[in-house]
Amino acid sequence: MKNLVQYISACFFCAIIFSCSDNFLTRESYVTVTDASEILISPEWEAKDYYFYIPNTGNAMFYVVKTPDWLHVQTVSGRFENNIATIHCSASAQSNFSEIGIYKSFMLLDIEGTGNTQIPVAYINEGKPEISAETNLMLQYDNGYCSGHIPLVIKNEGQGILLWSIAEKPEWISIDGLDDIFHPLNQYEYMILPNEEAVLNLSYHIEFSLLNDSDEKIKIISNDKSNSETVINFQLDEENSY
After folding, report:
1. Which of 7, 73, 93, 163 is a Cys-bridge partner for 89, taking CB atoms 3.0 to 4.6 Å apart?
2. In the prediction, which pLDDT does 212 show?
3. What whole-number distance in Å separates Cα of residue 148 and Cα of residue 171?
4. What are phi and psi of 36, to 5 degrees?
5. Which residues contact 12 (CB under 8 A, 6 or more apart)?
6. How do residues 89-116 score in pLDDT, each as one tens digit?
7. pLDDT for residue 5
8. Using CA atoms, how far apart are residues 105 and 229, in angstroms rounded to an integer?
9. Which DSSP state fits 47?
10. What single string gives the DSSP state of each residue in 167-180?
11. Which residues of the chain register pLDDT less than 70?
């Protein structure tokens, strides 16, 4: 967990040090949404739906009032569903955002019952991240059960910002500190800086017979252009089992 906190803190520092704000919103009457609802978008990604969450909006209508020049929104109005809204958009490349990093800005919405609200949006120049992870994890077993703890190390060996999320995992695997990672609003949940790593603590408990009959895996998706999907398999550690 300590390693996880350290790299998330480093990522926050990355967002600050590389950020560049478009200050077209200055009126103090605007409601400001936290970064938990931020839309992260790259000019290299195709136009698609992005989701954002705003508490207490329920099923209110919204209208797009203003966006950064680089953000192209096809959905200029819509409706929240249980505090979650969808917007279809893309980004265009900006020469002044040429350095690898994250550039912060805002989109302005008029939300029914709330008024003008700033939605954080961030332009990312992701560079060339490269994901690296052990693709076979060795599990110990004893008295008919596979049970224990094992680290999963995810590294960024490239020169870019690695964005990643766990798209699939067995129910008998839990990951300390990442209880809600498996239901992200958008594609990627976490980031790792160049030449840094995240160490996740996996806990497992399953009957030996069920594991033998199972082909379940951990699947990680990332913005590594040559390896967008990393599959991690499980094997029995016969030498170190009891």
Report:
1. 73
2. 65
3. 15
4. -65, -20
5. none
6. 999 999 999 999 999 999 999 999 999 9
7. 34
8. 30
9. P
10. EE--TTEEETT-TT
11. 1-36, 178-185, 211-214, 237-242
Say yes or no: do domains 14-125 and 128-236 share a fold. Answer: yes
Domain coordinates in residue numbering, the chain: 14-125, 128-236
β-sheet bridge partners, residue 79: 61
Q: Which two tokens stand for residue 5?
A: 């906190």
**How far from 236 is each of 65, 132, 146, CA to CA, in Å?**
57, 22, 8
CATH of domain 14-125: 2.60.40.10
- Tell me what pLDDT residue 58 has: 94
The answer to whether 201 touches 16, Cβ cutoff 8 Å, is no
Closest by Cα among 191, 187, 139, 152 to 7? 191
**pLDDT the model gives residue 241:** 56
Q: CB–CB of 89/73 below 8 Å?
A: yes
80, 58 Cβ separation under 8 angstroms = yes
- Gap between the Cα atoms of 226 and 121, Å rounded: 26
Do 204 and 232 touch, CB atoms closer than 8 A? no
Q: Residue holding tokens 């200055």?
A: 26
| pTM beyond 0.90 | no
Q: In degrees rounded to 5, what are phi and psi of residue 173?
A: -110, 130
Q: What are phi and psi of 211, to 5 degrees?
A: -65, -40
| Burial degree of 40 (CB within 10 A; 0-12, 13-18, 19+) | buried
- Residues shown for the chain: 242
pLDDT of res. 205 = 85
CATH superfamily of this structure's domain 128-236: Immunoglobulins (2.60.40.10)
CA–CA distance, 66 with 83 (Å, rounded to integer) = 21
Rg (CA), the chain: 21
φ/ψ region of 120 (left if φ > 0, alpha if ψ in -120 to 50, else beta) reads beta
